[in-house]
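Ticket #237: bound-state structure for fe (ii) ion.
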Amino acid sequence: MDKAFEDYLKQFDLNNFHIKRKHIHTYRVAENCLQIADELHLSEKDKELAYQIGILHDIGRFHQFEKTNSYDDSLLDHADYGVKLLFQDGLITSFPIAKENYRIIEMAVKYHNKFAIASDLDTRTKFFCQLIRDADKIDILELSCEGIMKFYMDGVVKPNILAQVQSRSQVRINGPRTNTDNVFIQIGFFYDIYFKPTVDILFERKIIDRLKDRVKDEVACQELDRAQRYLKERFTC
Ligand SMILES: [Fe+2]
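RESOLUTION: The complex was predicted; output attached.
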C-alpha cells in the first residue's frame, strides 16, 4: 500500500513544504486509523482497510495544491477530487485493495471533510467514515499543538461561532476564515468524535492541554476545558 502511494507521489515535489506536510499527515492519519481499529478489536482485514483509507483520504490534496496553490476546499474540494481521481480516473486500481471495499473507500474519502456523513449509508460504510474522521481530527489537532497548523487568535471570537461551540456543535462557517475562526473550528472538532479509543488517544497525547498552552486565550481555554469535560462525560473516561 505504502509503495503504491509513494509511486503516485513521484509526480509531485516532496521537497515543497506544503506537499511534504500532507505526505507526513497522511501516514500519521493512517497510523491513527490503525490504532483506533486495533483498540476497537477489528479483524485483521478491517484493520488493513482502516489503514488503506488513512493512506487514501487526502489523495486529492496534492493535485488541489498544484491546481490552486492552496488547501482551500472552497476553490476545489480535495475529498471530492480524491474520489474523482480514484474512481473516475481509475487510480484505485494501482493500489492493492479488494474490489469489495471500493464503495466503503469512496464514501470514506468523500465524507472525511464534510460537515456531516450522509445519513443513508449502511452501518459498515458509516463506521469507516466515522473512523477516518476521528483519525484525521486527531492529527489536525496534533499539528496545531506542534505549531505546524495555525492555532492562535487574531481577534475576538464572533458571537455566532462561540454560540455554536457552546451548544456542543461543530462550527459551520461559510466564506473566508480568520485565525480566530480556525481556533474555534478546531475546538468544535471535539463535538464530532465517535469512538472512545479516539478520546483515549486525545487524552494520552495531552492534546487539549497542549492546545491551551498554544492559544493562551481565556475564552478559547474555557471552551477547551468545557470540551474536555464533555468528552469525559460522554465517553465516561
Ligand atoms: Fe483531508
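RESOLUTION NOTES: The chain has a mean pLDDT of 97.
TICKET STATUS: resolved
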